[in-house]
Amino acid sequence: MRTPPAVTVMAEAAGAKRKCERPEELAEPAGGDGGSFPLAELCVRRVLRESARDKTIFLHGQVNGASGDAKDAVVILEKTPFQEESVSDLLKKHTRLKLQMSNDIYSTYHLYPPPQLSEIKTTVVYPATEKHLQKYLRQEVYLIRETGEDYRNITLPFIQSQSFSIQWVYNILEKTAEADRIIHENPDSFNGFVLIPDFKWNQKQLDDLYLIAICHRRGIKSLRDLTAEHLPLLRNILHEGKEAILKRFGVAGSQLRIYLHYQPSYFHLHVHFTTLSYDAPGCSVERAHLLSDVIDNLELDPQYYQKRSLTFALRADEALLKKFQEAGKA
């Protein structure tokens, strides 16, 4: 799932009845590009999830194809962070205030900025599968404590039985897509990688800086596959990634959180780079493993991640959770 151009849209309240409407302001496709997602054709079916803290809402919609068949889409709307250079315009130019409450020296207003200063970052998955819909649907979450044996007997067979498409990863590595977004590349086919902005970062401010290092070498699915053989690759990612980010964005390595997910969202080895000030999704202790710690652990024991127990969270609807339950492990 990658980022399309950001667009500004209006979404109905979660509890309201949803209708298929084509408002005038949505008549032009996102970005004004004929190949863009047909936003004006979207019929919102339901709210999958929303977060008041993160200012995001996840929508399930459908678009009618030329043959009349409806294709599912996931649309994620996210309020973008303030940009220092535009704050003055936000307060002074064509902005309307509506008083909500006043008491002594304190007052609360609703501020209505002009469209060019009220951008909403919009991420689209289209056409979306049932797996995508379930991924973004709010679910209960359970912790799993996976031993090395559990991985070999339960998790690995499950991964091998699934058809997880990562063609978009290969498109990046082969430069058939997003080549202009690559920040740094070590082209070595064995110990090299590309560094690219994550779709969650719009690159307009550094507070939520988020980049991904994707290794060129195929066949490394996750943390569980790593051995001492992979130390040169991991060290390259750690050191070259920090140097590239310092050179391009001026953010020092001591201000970065550099980590791997377990379990990852896709099974091709990749490493996350975020600023320490950004509470990024998936940076919690039950999922994130600092790259520097991973390197240290492999230096101590080349088979460390084949042996140790790893804790991770699974949603109630995930098939892997059912596998662990059937094995009496959850």
TrEMBL record:
Assembly and interaction partners: Homodimer. Associates with components of the exosome multienzyme ribonuclease complex, such as EXOSC3 and EXOSC4. Interacts with NDOR1.
Keyword vocabulary terms for this entry: Acetylation, Cytoplasm, Hydrolase, mRNA processing, mRNA splicing, Nucleus, Phosphoprotein
Name of the featured protein: m7GpppX diphosphatase
Family from the record: Belongs to the HIT family.
Binding site for substrate: 168, 178, 198, 200, 261-272
SUPFAM superfamilies linked to this entry: HIT-like, mRNA decapping enzyme DcpS N-terminal domain
Protein's cellular compartments: Cytoplasm; Nucleus
Gene Ontology molecular functions: 5'-(N(7)-methyl 5'-triphosphoguanosine)-[mRNA] diphosphatase activity; identical protein binding; RNA 7-methylguanosine cap binding
